[in-house]
Amino acid sequence: MYDNSLHFSGVAEKNSDLVSKLNLKDKEFILATIHRNNNTDVPANLTALFSAINEIAITNNLPVVLPLHPRTAKLLQSNLNKDLYEKVTTNPLLKVIEPASFLEMIDLEKNCTLVMTDSGGVQKEAFYFEKPCIILRPETEWVELVDCGSAIVTDANETRIKEAFAKLYNNKNLVYPKYYGDGNAAEFICREIVGCFGS
């Protein structure tokens, strides 16, 4: 995964212009992804997530890009109260967009300042690009990201999300240990195979 992310970050740099299309500045926006049923289909959880995201965006004058599945986007109106829905849909800092392609996501991850997500894969990709991550789930498979301090598990808890943001945003002391090698695992594997079976 690390090899893949590094390789395609270069491809994305040449082939994705989503960051510029959205008028975003490098390292001056948040990337947020929300798609899990326990977040989207539970009004209290969706409310907590969007209340936190909306407040963080306004308080810090920081754009938030939300590539949302059409189903999730539709649930905003039915699962958020009228007042919050209006705030979210009229806040120019919240950029709710169509689902991003693989290269567009890599481009967004590489250029954002912080990631908020309930996705498993996006957590690791955030780490690969040395971005702090707020995990919008009750737990994570990638406990090493939390152990090293670069990610915080908050679940759909508004207070914990805002506290995690305050702890991670602009924190210059975060570390990203080389848990996943140097990005050359595929080359190493190929050399080993050739060494074992090559003539």
Description:
This protein has 199 residues and is of the alpha/beta class. It has one domain: 3-Layer(aba) Sandwich (Rossmann fold). The chain is built from eleven helices and six strands. The chain has a six-stranded parallel sheet, sandwiched between helices. Strand 4, helix 8 and strand 5 form a beta-alpha-beta unit. The mean pLDDT is 92.
Name its key features.
54% helix; six-stranded parallel sheet; alpha/beta; 199 residues; Rossmann fold
Architecture blueprint of SSEs:
Blueprint: H1 2-15, H2 18-21, E1 30-33, H3 37-40, H4 43-60, E2 64-67, H5 70-79, H6 82-90, E3 94-97, H7 102-111, E4 114-117, H8 120-128, E5 133-135, H9 143-147, E6 151-153, H10 158-168, H11 185-197
Parallel strand pairs: 1-2, 1-4, 2-3, 4-5, 5-6
Helix pairs in contact: 1-7, 4-10
Q: Characterize the biggest β-sheet.
A: 6 strands, parallel
List the uncertain runs: none
Tally of alpha and pi helices: 11
Count of DSSP strands: 6
Strand content: 5-15%
What would you say about this model in short?
The chain is of the alpha/beta class and 199 residues long. It is 54% helix and 11% strand.
